[in-house]
Amino acid sequence: MNSQQSIATESIYKLLIKYSIPAIIGMMVNALYNVVDRIFIGNIPGVGPLAITGLGVTMPVMTIILAFGMLIGIGTTTSISIKLGQGKKEEAQKLIGNAITLSILIGIILTIIGIVFVDKILILFGASENTLFYAKEYINIILIGSVVNILSFSLNHSIRADGSPKISAGIMIIGCLTNVALDALFIFMLGQGIKGAALATITSQALTAVLTMTYYMSGKSNLKFTKSSLKLDKKLALGVFAIGMSPFAMQIAASMVQVISNHALKAYGGDLAIGAMTTISSISMIFLMPIFGINQGSQPIIGFNYGAKQYNRSKKAYIVSLCAATTILCIGSGIIQLFPEQIIGLFNKDEELMKMSVEGIRVYLFMLPLVGISITGSNYVQSIGKAKVAMFLSLLRQVILLIPAIIILPRFFNLRGVWLAQPIADFIAIIITTIVIIIEMRSYNKEEINIKTEFAIERDSNELI
Asked: What keywords is this UniProt entry annotated with (predicted)?
């Protein structure tokens, strides 16, 4: 049984385990790229608190680079799944080459723009005289590696849709272990400091990009890479952008939120408050990445079965993924609320930074147990190709609700208002996402009734003949 047949017939539980566990490993490994950097940087003797704050200033830039990786990667992966579900293998195959070309072109543009305007960008994003040096040392090197960053993310993503989630996860693990080893080498043994962390990151991403390219060029992949597929197909590229626009918009929105948040944090808590948020976001990433892994694992299952009009299977895949996500987030929330000092202490033990981070994390991640409803809900809508609705749900949580909350709440609650903004936005987004999903799934019952009616009419007509 090939991978496409198994998606159409195999148990949903088995499929989600098969696709999600490698994807979860991959996403956790991807998170460790950033988390390990921040742990090492936060523990640089003498400059740790300022260095991790400088790193926090660069987060909007890194989020923008990730946004383009998700635009191409998720857009390509979902398009491949839908095309395979529709039996259009040739078009699915062309998407691989198109993803490579788009990654290279966009990566080069980001590198040029970023390096030319780096000082202005960092100051705009919240850098002060004390943190600009550390932010600039780190981000200049990250910008040089934009091409391999986007290429490694987008191609590794597509390997899952090609039916090889274990290979995808394996490549990410190799990249992460390389990053950890090089962090220790560059930062401490060679004394490169924050610059060493950036060098370790882009070197490991380059290795990941090479390994993903090798997978498609080795002849072992289900979808074969051809040089002719590097030529951009306007229709396919637009399809990738349409589907990938939702996660892209979410990440761009996240970057905007980070910029606004940095300015609010600096105004109400000083430079160290940005360092506290960097630590909090790193910890939240550890617990949220498994949910994004579940999303990635469920995408081909939902997309294929929806394309094949097996609505009950696509619906079941969503419900099971939601239950798994909620379970993980409840466990994560319990750990955070009970042991905040121990977790934060991994990043930095500065007394003032610790106190600020502990207060912030308990409030900022208060809605963590339920946020899986919003995250998996927007992923479901995206996986069935309804890009506009998915974009609305993504922007609802990150822009429409969160940005006004960050601007308004600190005026009444000072620094605590910045921490309160996220759980309030999450609560409202969860309610609206639930309503959208219920309406979407109820429409399947009507369509299934119509299909059964048409079948019965056709059968009766044939009997009469």
From this structure: Antibiotic resistance, Cell membrane, Membrane, Transmembrane, Transmembrane helix, Transport
